[in-house]
Each structure stands twice: as C-alpha cells, then as structure tokens.
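Section 4.2 – Deliverable D4.2 (structural model, holo form)

The reporting period included a commitment to supply a predicted holo structure for the target in complex with propionyl Coenzyme A. Inputs used:
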Amino acid sequence: MAEKVSGEMSEDSSDSAAAVSQDLRSVLVTSVLNLEKLEIDLYRGTHHWVPRTRRLFGGQIIGQALVAAAESVGENVLAHSLHCYFVRAGDPKVPVLYQVERTRDGRSFSVRSVKAIQYGQPILICQASFHSNQPSPLQHQFTMPSVPPPEDLLTGEELIQLYLSKPDLAEKAKQGLNKLLADEVPIEIKPVNPPDFYRCVAMEPKKLYWVRAKGHIGKGDMKLHCCVAAYVSDYSFLDTALLPYPGQRATFLASLDHAMWFHNTFRADEWMLYETESSWTGGSRGLVQGRLWRRDGVLAASCAQEGVLRVKALTTSAVTNESKL
Ligand SMILES: CCC(=O)SCCNC(=O)CCNC(=O)[C@H](O)C(C)(C)COP(=O)(O)OP(=O)(O)OC[C@H]1O[C@@H](n2cnc3c(N)ncnc32)[C@H](O)[C@@H]1OP(=O)(O)O
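Output (structure tokens):
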C-alpha cells in the first residue's frame, strides 16, 4: 500500500505544546508536499493551487521534486542546491510521478536526479545536491536591504481591496482583481514597493516583498522548509522582468529553468524578504535573480531563473487599467 512522505513531519516540543490544530497547518505540508510513496524512489504528487494559465505552477513541481530527492538521502544532509529544467507544461488534470535516481553518495555530498513525469514524458528534470553541515572560517554575505517590517505593510489581498475600492476602476480591471482575490495561493506576500495601480511608467526590474507559507509548519525538519522555500521562490519571480515595460502585456510567460542555493537555516512559515531583480531580457527570454533573507538579516537562499516572455503591445487606454500587483 502507498504511504505518505515528508509533508507530515514530527513537531518539535514547543509546537506540540502549542497543540497546533489541523486547520492551522500549512496546506503546503499537509497536502502539496505530502507525496505518496508508490515504490522505492517513486512518488506521486497532487495539486493544490493551479494558476489561471492552466499549466502546473513551476514552484509546485520543484518543491515536490525536492521532497522526493530528500527522501533518499541521510538524515544529516541538507539540500544546498538544485538545478531544474521545465521541459513540458504540467497538466493539472492528472497527478505527477517523481522518479529519483541516486546519482552519487560521497562522504560530504549526495547528488540526486529527479524526473517529474506525466503521460510517460518528463515535464521537469531536476538535479539536487545535499551536503552535511561543515564549519568554515570563510563567511561573508551581502547586507539585507533596509525595508519596513512586514507588520507595517499591506498584504497582497489588502492591496487588491484598496484598488477595488477606486470608484473609476474599469470593469475588466475589476474582474481581473476579483479573480486574483479568489486564487487560493498557499503563500502570503506583503509587497514593499508595489507599483501604483494606475502607474504606466517604466519601473526598474526590481521587487522587494515579504513572503511566507500560509499556515503553521513549525521548526520541525529543515529539509521540509527547503522544499517549501523552493515552492515559494517561483511565485511572482519571472514577472520582475516585465516591470520596465508597462506598455506590453504578457501573452505567454513560462519559466524554462530554476536554480536555487540554500545557505542557512530558516523557517518558511516565518516572514522572509524576497529581493528579486532582472539583469537581462532579450530574444523573447528574460533572466531573474532572487535572494531570500531571514528577517534577522541572514541570507537564507539565492535563486535564478530564465523564462520565455512573449508580449503584445497594449493600447494606451488599456495601459492605464492593467493591474500590476
Ligand atoms: C511563470 C511561473 C511558472 O510557474 S511557469 C510553469 C513552469 N514552466 C513551464 O510550464 C514551462 C514548460 N515548458 C514548456 O512548456 C516548453 O518547454 C516551452 C517553453 C513552451 C517550449 O517551447 P517550444 O519549444 O516553442 O514548444 P512548442 O513548440 O510546443 O510550443 C509551445 C507553444 O508556444 C508557441 N510558440 C512556439 N514558438 C513560438 C514563437 N516563436 N512565437 C510565438 N509562439 C510560439 C507554439 O505555437 C505553442 O503554442 P500552443 O500551445 O500550440 O498554443
């Protein structure tokens, strides 16, 4: 019989003392990243939130692939990096199978290859590397940008409500915002520098927002926090590259690859600052880089992604009504 893995981790004593009720648990750990084990190194994952593009959310596939890879390594190693290619669109109508290949186990590092499969074909290929914790005299990192704390900022939902309260809002824009509100994304965000709704001037391709998984995860297993962060890191990442182009609407936006490096321990259910920037666009593609900061200023993880960006010029009246959350 198939068993569930990873999502339901053991609680540490402070969490069990708090007796976290089931409905406060993050859906990311109870469902999305809770894979069904079918065989040794073979898992099945199901979907929770599906974007309006009707293709599977890339972050979900990466997070699930990392759960599958992490199941096959020792307890004392943590993911330090992953490199993925999205080779086909994921179909939300069927589950995804994850097949793990144990590429190498060394004294310090273990490498795994994971293929995410639908209809017998790979939709994602992922290499993940795990490392045992080792001390080092070499330690440096950039400094976290100075921003207002999450408590002083509006959530994505509150910003949408604010935009919806504008009396002269066009019907089409209202519909778009209401659809956004209805989305059941298992992530909470608080933008630090949200573009003004009516803004139709080019912005620097840089974003800053506080982000965390919705619901409670607990201190628990650092491996699982890495999987949750992998999920979160793909959310609203690639659209950073569109900020300089208010006159263009994306007709096709899809990530081609995603890389991630984990530097320090963190909790994915606590606010982290996501700093994203796009260093380049061209040839219908765009490159974005991201840094996930713990709120105490420690750099938790770095990410990079290239995506396809196909756009269409907006008419002047449409530019003013486009939502740029
Ligand atoms: C943004 C965050 C996310 O999570 S995105 C989700 C994760 N990423 C993904 O799902 C991407 C998965 N990968 C893919 O879908 C494929 O690798 C992609 C990127 C589409 C590869 O593209 P390609 O090799 O062109 O595939 P294809 O021939 O099957 O075409 C797909 C659709 O694109 C169109 N297309 C192709 N080339 C052009 C072009 N030069 N100009 C305009 N359109 C083009 C094709 O006609 C095809 O369209 P359609 O699907 O038939 O409507």
